[in-house]
Write a structure and sequence with these properties.
By secondary structure, the chain is mostly beta strands. The chain is built from one helix and 26 strands. A hairpin with a 5-residue loop joins strand 17 and strand 18.
């Protein structure tokens, strides 16, 4: 049951707020006048999720889901050098939800082979093997780990008492602290706050948490889901996924205080899990170009490639 539980959680992370496509997706994600230079980064039959760009802007982490396998064996972390052909699977199966450490050579990730998923670290050259942050899980399912800007703390999500909680621990696994209910934490570059999401009524909404005061502020609202938020490298802009048009999900940005909502992608595709790279580039997943299979359009959890778009600053 633990494996099934985490698999469902991982897909809910990837597809939160994403509507199932009832129409044939466009061959490429459409963009508004706020962006340009749409580029397909990956094009493979196995779906890819959750791109993460290295601090030096040269590499990309993501994870794949091979539905020809079963359980958590389907999940595998991969990295590639941006602008170069080829990709490198990392560590092995039962791995997902990876993020970079500051040297652009090592990563944090979730390892799902133990009875309860745990946070581990490793090097992309494979030299370190599987290095556990802690010998056992903090909760029922530890995942979505993010390293603090000063390199001393790890934010992560864990299921405690059937509730998803944002937690904090030292880099060596000590000083475990539960901060707030929610999931998908993402640090501000200053390290003084982080973004996260949690359910408000029927929909996920985006919040910011001040680590100095312990106070949370809700940034989005309304009768649609808003999720998967991440800061720009300068901390001034937030990119996120929203289902505001009620037919699909698209990429939006807003200022760090929640103002100046701006739509980035449009059209007949499901676009989700955005993140910033360097030079105003946004990387995200999309089911654009999904072919019909036996007369049906695959959902975004069965067909997903990674794309990029360049944000036009207003």
């Amino acid at each position: 049951m633990k494996k099934i539980h985490f698999a469902a959680l991982a897909l809910s992370f990837a597809l939160a707020s994403c509507a199932t496509s009832k129409f044939t997706p466009d061959t490429a994600p459409g963009v508004t006048g706020n962006a340009r230079e749409v580029i397909r980064i990956t094009n493979d039959p196995i779906p890819e999720y959750a791109p993460e760009i290295s601090p030096d802007g040269k590499k990309m982490l993501f994870y794949t889901v091979d539905n020809n396998k079963v359980g958590n064996e389907r999940y595998n972390i991969v990295y590639m050098n941006l602008g170069q052909p080829g990709r490198t699977p990392l560590i092995g199966s039962h791995t997902a939800s990876a993020s970079w450490m500051h040297d652009s050579k090592s990563i944090l990730y979730t390892y799902m082979r133990p009875a309860k998923p745990v946070i581990c670290k490793g090097n992309i050259d494979g030299s370190s093997g599987i290095a556990y942050i802690t010998p056992s899980a903090m909760g029922e399912s530890d995942n979505f780990a993010r390293l603090s800007p000063d390199g001393k703390k790890i934010l992560f999500t864990s299921t405690i008492g059937n509730t998803s909680q944002i937690c904090l621990m030292d880099l060596n696994g000590n000083n475990f602290t539960v901060l707030t209910e929610g999931t998908l934490p993402s640090y501000h570059p200053s390290g003084t706050s982080f973004l996260y999401q949690k359910m408000v009524g029927k929909f996920n909404q985006i919040f910011t948490y001040n680590l100095k005061t312990g106070q949370s502020t809700q940034l989005t609202s309304g009768d649609s889901g808003n999720s998967q938020a991440a800061y720009s490298p300068d901390g001034k802009t937030i990119v996120f996924t929203s289902g505001r048009d009620n037919t699909s999900s698209h990429i939006f940005t807003m200022n760090a205080d929640g103002s100046s909502l701006t739509q980035i992608t449009t059209g007949n595709s499901v676009n989700f899990t955005p993140t910033f790279g360097t030079n105003e580039m946004i990387y995200f997943c999309s089911n654009a170009g999904a072919p019909k299979v036996n007369g049906f359009i695959p959902s975004a959890n069965a067909y997903s490639d990674i794309w990029s778009v360049k944000l036009i600053k207003q």
